[in-house]
Amino acid sequence: MSLMSSLRSITHAIESAVEVVCKAVLTISGFSLLAVLVTNVFMRYVLEGSLDAASELPSLLFPWFVMGAIVLAAVRGNHIAMSLTMHMLPPGGRRFLAGLIYGLSAVVFTFLGWFAVDNMLIAHDEVSTILHVPGSVGYAALTIAYFLLALTAVSAMIRYVICAEPIIVDLTSSEGSPT
Questions:
Q1: Can you give the pTM of this predicted structure?
Q2: Helix, strand or coil for residue 60?
Q3: pLDDT score of 82
Q4: In contact, 157 and 104? CB cutoff 8 Å
Q5: How far apart are CA 165 and CA 76, in angstroms?
Q6: 179 lies in some domain
Q7: CA angle, residues 30, 31, 33, in degrees to nearest 5
Q8: How far apart are CA 171 and CA 81, in angstroms?
Q9: Which of 13, 57, 154, 168 is the most buried (most CB within 10 A)?
Q10: Residue 173 lies in a domain
């Protein structure tokens, strides 16, 4: 097995693993948000009470929901501006632009992730009023998202620039453009 096919296999495996994790995070957080809403509505209108934690749970779950969606969109290549620009370029220009975009993205998201770790540590001392959950839980979603975005950017850069996978732009595809 050549180095290029090994790199290609590794990057596809990384992207597949990230996609599975993001789908799981989306599913769990989405259903959890829905369960909190349904439970609170049931308690309010049927039992004439309320769930004390109903105000805090969405603020804990929503960052994870957003993190899963953003990283999943990045893994699938669902960037509207990138799709339109790539559509107008010849294959060589697409490869150069993809390398530039993914390289800059990897650097920026790595730095943002590093600084989010600091914020997560600071926010850990703050706890929610009812559930007493540390404030670092929301920042953890942000931190993980930044590092996963950096990882997927490096993976895409390796596939498109080093392994020279073709960048096919299909503006009608719902699965993203660079495939």
A1: 0.80
A2: helix
A3: 65
A4: no
A5: 15
A6: no
A7: 65
A8: 11
A9: 57
A10: no
State the pLDDT at residue 113.
Answer: 93
Residues 33, 13, 165: CA angle, nearest 5 degrees = 115
DSSP code of residue 134: B
Tokens of 168: 């096919």
Residue ranges of the chain with per-residue pLDDT less than 70: 1, 78-84, 168-179
When divided into structural domains, the chain yields a total of 1
Cβ–Cβ < 8 Å for 74, 149: yes
In whole angstroms, what is the distance from residue 60 CA to residue 108 CA? 26
Cβ atoms within 10 A of the Cβ of 148, count? Answer: 23
Structural tokens at position 174: 């719902």
- Domain range for 119 is 3-162
Which letter does DSSP use for residue 64 in this model?
A: H
What would the two tokens of residue 31 be?
């259903």
For 5-41, b where at least 16 C-beta lie within 10 A, e where not — what string? eeebeebeebbeebeebbeebbeebbebbeebeeebe
Predicted pLDDT at 20: 94
Query: Which pLDDT belongs to residue 179?
Result: 45
Tokens for 43, please give them: 């308690």
Is 172 inside any structural domain? Answer: no
| 93 within domain boundaries | yes
